[in-house]
Amino acid sequence: MSIVKIENVRVLDPIQKTDSVQTVYIENGKLVAPVEQVEQTIDGQGKWLMPTMVDLCARLREPGQQQHGTLKSEGKAARANGILHVITPPDSKPIVQDNGALIHGLIEKAWHDGGIHMHIIGAQTQGLNGKQPANMAGLKKGGCTAVSNANAAFENDDVVIRTLEYAAGLGLTVVFYAEEPQIAKDGCAHEGFIASRQGLPMIPAIAETVAIAKYLLMIEATGVKAHFGLLSCGASVELIRAAKAKGLPVTADVAMHQLHLTEHLTDGFNSLAHVRPPLRSEQDKELLRQGLKEGVIDAICTHHEPLSSSAKMAPFAET
Predict the structure, then answer these.
(1) Alpha carbon of 17 to those of 13, 20, 50: distances in Å?
(2) Which of 46, 183, 230, 298 is the most buried (most CB within 10 A)?
(3) How far apart are CA 205 and CA 208, in angstroms?
(4) CATH homologous superfamily for 51-318?
(5) What is the CA 209 to chain-centroid distance, rounded?
(6) Domain segments of the chain: what residues?
(7) Three-state SS string across 281-313, please?
(8) Could you read off the pLDDT of 57-94 as tens digits, one per residue?
(9) Alpha-carbon gap, residue 277 to 236, rounded angstroms
(10) Is the pLDDT of residue 6 over 70?
(11) Looking at the DSSP assignment, which residues form a beta bridge with residue 83?
């Protein structure tokens, strides 16, 4: 293979803790020592050279919702943005993430069609029904390293505890997208002046924080390793901070749009700003950013959910 010289490129290596502008030499996809003769020289001014990224939350819509996206189309989009590893929640339609054998086939298809490494979070309960634990041993054998009930509600807290004990015994991580259904109900926008003025059903921040607080107590009791995905509230950051200070095995991420956008974007019933958890206040946005800078929040995810244009043409609450 030819040797490529890249000049003036910003090298980012989290393992070696490197962040500097350098000239590097690459042969067969690997860094090599400087040499006199190279086949190609590239000016890397303004560009980054870094390991491929991992997206902790993206729905690729296959199987079952190919009208919105496919493993081929979404895999191509991921690779174009430097993302080679994509982690997907277990709520595809139909739900196949409670079947270890089907999961293995999806992983192979994602690489064949889209050129990405797809990592599937298994279902925490059978069919995400919130009643009976899924076959987590079979899911682990099929390649899952984590389980979750996605956005589906549990029948009761006893089911949650039993599944956490099961996951802990298998060494599986449990992923929570924390929202208390009895508080969130049929809400679709952040509880505040803008949603109230427009008459939109609201989701208060406490719907998230109550769920996180409850799950943290269960994590402490069972010893399971847990990850909280898609934080949206400043108060949630403080709960995760306290849990880490206590030594609980927890991590957390935030969706990239929560770091840049707020509830103001929903004004005028702008359905393009309808996400869940909802865009929240300016104060929440700043506290999430601060939590990220301080390392309380461990990662940023895309929360990528491709939709056809017609899916955003309904009234706000229905989109």
Answers:
(1) 6, 10, 11
(2) 230
(3) 6
(4) Metal-dependent hydrolases (3.20.20.140)
(5) 18
(6) 3-48, 51-318
(7) CHHHHHHHHHHHHCCCCCEEECCECCCCHHHHC
(8) 999 887 667 778 889 999 999 999 999 999 999 987 76
(9) 12
(10) yes
(11) 53
